[in-house]
Design goal:
Elements lengths: L1 H26 L3 H14 L5 H27 L14 H4 L1 E5 L3 E4 H28 L10 H24 L17 H32 L3 H5 L9 H17 L2 H4 L3 H7 L3 H12 L1 H24 L4 E2 L2 E5 L3 E7 L11 E5 L9 E4 L10 E7 L3 H15 L9 E8 L11 E7 L4 H15 L8 E8 L12 H4 L8 E8 L9 H8 L2 E5 L15 H27 L12 H33 L11 E5 L11 E4 L5 H12 L3 E7 L2 H14 L13 E6 L5
Keywords: Membrane, Oxidoreductase, Transmembrane, Transmembrane helix
Organism: Davidia involucrata
Membrane topology: Multi-pass membrane protein
């Protein structure tokens, strides 16, 4: 009872903090806020905190406090009950509402959130421009007429819209310090919000820069203004460098470049540090504190992830499938538990010392206490290099296998398991997109074997592949496919081979042919550490609070030591470059101190007990396969075409008998859009009690990599 009351209290506090921070952004453009805020800043100028300490507490700390309280809430929150929950009217908002090839699949909740954000931007722009046009004080130095002045102010206020987008830009891509987890949003789903915000930010920033340059060009003063220091100590050149840097990051992140030249995308994205630094020099610390929450949490998250990936572990073994796919087996701390569809980030220094790649975990922590596995399709440069390393070891005659060290971040998994809530499941995978479903099926089978109730028992897996040999990816769930009808889990697989004509082969024959794998066990002499995952939520809350307090104390120290709080505020207007430097130094030192605390804490945990790694080096296993004497007549295979999803949807309720159906899709975007459209058509509206028996399809999009 006490825990329940505390959880309710924490939830109310989080709602109030969130509402207060949003209200702050709504009031900030108004004249009332400007007058009150100037008075508040003046009152702090004689203190050690000064105005920048007040800015941090009011503008930045609410989001950090939200993260701290959120972590405490998640730590105290009991695990989701292993039972199907009753469907609510909110399901209609979480189902696809718009399906478009340009914007993808949008739910009602996403459309509502985007609409509110657009209204906020419109409100901010309108209030700022209205106040500017009322004053009508043209820039005398450039001798602008009224129309030129209006255009100049319009361009200037577009910069504030870019600032609002930047304030949210980094929040969706936080991993260990993720606050989106409070909303039940998975990391891979929130990445696209980062893309949307980044695109909007650069759109407004480009309008801001282009409009300013247009006015300068009309007045023939581009060179003079570019190098001119403003009265507040700012220089326009910093803004131009930030804009160019942001455009380079955006262009190299386009799908056409990111998919074909991942290295270019990866390395240019690290220019974010240059962008943020020159943004600070261009706008000043007063504007920077508005966008600082995401930057603060991102910096802390980045360092903690680096610490988590140390010390490196190693690959225990690898399995090579016929379709140029490898499964890596990694050591895991038995205490580490994760949810199905979790993602890890992996770096192999022998291939690249800087590149991290994400992969879906295909193993299940309820079954595999000491190991974790990922399946990798070897197509690009990095994955092909990994494949060549493993294949070289298989082909070599050396009995002593090499040791391959790897660094691991994660696993990062969903906060809730939505697929547990349905009567039946329709899983649709394309190619390597089957990997998230391997962990889902293992989780359900493990739970039902242990007697846990509330799981869907009737599941259909629609697997679309180009070649029949790609069916080898079903190898990890062969034991499930071979189960007899008397078992609790009723799994039916329908394979569609799109680029091969009818061969007459059955599912059993093809699985038997392509289930042969080569296994190689590597040495573990280079590392004796297992993956032990993220620290607890309480620990993350403590480290976030510690770094915030450290930052504020350091900022106060620099203010007191160098800016002499006793002086009048009017004499301190030209010290903007100093305050920028103090902000950078305080942030850097606070993050480093937090990192040192994290390192000490991690070393102490490692001393208490290092999970042992079983030694299996020097053994090469011959190709092996599972003898399939059991019947596989219930499964189907089709050649020469794609699945007719409309026909599958119409037959599925009769085949499974469930009225509440979860549709999980992982694969090409076009496939997801087709499924989302069918879910949208089949499940329009909110069901009443009289319509409970009508099939209701609930769409969920998954991803196997980021």
């Amino acid at each position: 009872m006490a825990r329940t009351s505390l959880l309710v209290f924490l939830k109310i506090v989080m709602i109030l903090i969130c509402a207060g921070w949003v209200s702050l952004w709504l009031l900030k453009p108004t004249e009332l806020w400007t007058r009150k805020w100037k008075t508040a800043e003046q009152s702090t100028m004689t203190t050690a905190f000064r105005y920048n300490g007040l800015d941090f507490v009011v503008y930045t700390f609410p989001v950090i406090a939200l993260a701290i309280i959120g972590f405490i809430y998640l730590e105290l929150k009991p695990k989701e009950p292993r039972s199907r929950q009753r469907r609510s009217s909110n399901t209609a908002l979480s189902n696809p509402l718009i399906v478009n090839s340009y914007v993808g699949v949008l739910t009602g909740i996403e459309i509502l959130a985007v609409s509110l954000f657009v209204l906020f931007l419109a409100w901010t722009f309108y209030v700022r421009i209205s106040n500017d046009f009322k004053k009508m004080i043209p820039n005398k130095s450039m001798k602008l007429n009224m129309s030129q002045f209006k255009l100049f102010r319009l361009a200037t206020r577009c910069g504030l819209l870019a600032e609002a987008c930047l304030a949210l830009l980094l929040l969706p891509i936080l991993r260990g310090m993720a606050i989106f987890r409070l909303l039940g949003i998975q990391f891979e789903a929130s990445v696209r919000y980062h893309v949307w915000l980044g695109t909007a930010m650069l759109f407004f920033a480009t309008l801001h820069g282009a409009g300013t340059f247009l006015i300068w060009g009309i007045k023939h003063c581009i060179q003079d203004q570019m190098w001119k220091w403003q009265q507040t100590g700012r220089i326009y050149l910093a803004g131009e460098i930030a804009l160019v840097t942001g455009l380079v990051i955006w262009i190299t992140s386009l799908p056409q470049i990111r998919r074909k030249q991942f290295e270019i995308f990866y390395y240019t994205h690290h220019l974010y540090a240059v962008f943020l630094l020159f943004f600070l020099f261009h706008t000043g610390d007063r504007h920077f504190y508005m966008v600082f929450p995401g930057i603060f949490l991102f910096g802390l998250d980045k360092l903690l992830r680096i610490i988590q990936s140390r010390p490196e572990t190693c690959i225990l073994s690898a399995r090579i499938f016929p379709c140029k796919v490898v499964e890596l087996i990694l050591p895991k701390d038995p205490r580490l538990k994760y949810t199905p569809t979790s993602v890890i980030f992996m770096k192999i220094p022998s291939i690249s010392k800087f590149q991290w790649h994400s992969f879906t975990v295909t193993s299940n922590s309820s079954i595999d206490d000491h190991t974790m596995s990922v399946i990798i399709k070897c197509e690009g440069w990095w994955t092909s290099s990994l494949y060549n390393i493993i294949q070289t070891e298989v082909d070599s005659d050396n009995d002593q296998m090499k040791c391959i060290p790897v660094a691991i971040e994660g696993p990062y998994g969903p906060a809730s398991l939505d697929f547990l809530r349905y009567d039946s499941l329709l899983l649709v995978a394309g190619g390597i997109g089957v990997t998230p479903f391997l962990s889902i099926l293992r989780e359900i089978d493990s739970a039902q074997s242990s007697g846990t109730k509330g799981f869907p028992t009737k599941i259909h897996l629609i697997y679309v592949v180009k070649k029949s040999q790609d069916m080898c990816l079903l190898n990890p769930i062969l034991p499930l496919l071979l189960k007899q009808k008397g078992e609790q889990l009723h799994l039916k697989v329908k394979v569609f081979v799109t680029q091969e004509k009818q061969s007459g082969a059955t599912v059993r024959e093809l699985l038997n042919e392509y289930s042969q794998v080569e296994t190689v066990n590597f040495s573990t002499k280079c590392s004796n550490y297992a993956i032990h995952g993220l620290e607890s939520f309480l620990w993350r809350a403590a480290i976030a609070g510690f770094s915030s307090i450290m930052f504020l104390l350091l900022l106060s120290f620099f203010n007191h030591a160098f800016l002499h709080p006793g002086k009048k505020a009017s004499k301190q207007k030209n010290s903007s470059s100093e305050t920028d430097l103090f902000l950078i130094c305080s942030f850097t030192i606070a993050i480093i101190c937090s990192a040192l605390v994290a390192v000490i804490f991690r070393r102490r945990n490692l001393r208490e007990g290092i999970p042992s790694i079983s030694e299996k080096q020097g053994k090469k296993m011959k190709p092996s396969s599972m003898e399939m004497s059991a019947s596989l007549e219930g499964h189907e295979i089709h050649f020469g075409g794609r699945p007719n999803f409309q026909d599958i949807f119409s037959k599925f309720p009769n085949e499974t008998g469930g009225s509440d159906i979860g549709v999980l899709a992982c694969g090409p975007e076009t496939m997801k859009e087709s499924l989302a459209s069918l879910c949208q058509l089949s499940s329009q509206g909110i069901r009443t009690s009289a319509q409970r028996k009508k099939p209701y399809f609930n769409f969920h999009s998954l991803t196997f990599t980021l």
